[in-house]
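Form 7-S
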Amino acid sequence: MAADSKRLGDEQRERLVAEMRQEQASRQAGYREQALKLYPPVCGRCAREFEGAKLRELTVHHRDHNHDNNPPDGSNWELLCLYCHDHEHTRGVQEGRDSDASDTSADSGENLSFSPFAALADTFKKDRSC
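Output:
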């Protein structure tokens, strides 16, 4: 009998998880479609334009990192390409920030600040002086 009750619990849990995932997917589809109507299909960071099949690479970023905060005017959203969106979320981890809304540096509209070749010119200057 214990195995039957455990199986029932597992089935209920799986059903609940499936329902939650479906609800999340429908909520995301709703605000994504709304954001694509409000904003031009351009990444808010790198300014790359998207159309046709490439439009799927454009994602909705929540400025305050709260996916439940979806005002109808889109004031908490910005369209970002996959790469810039990934960078936006890893930037907080790299800088040791929490992902809560108390930090406003992500909202300041700063462009991507990391440049992998920033010190390259200095390297060449050092090589030439030798």
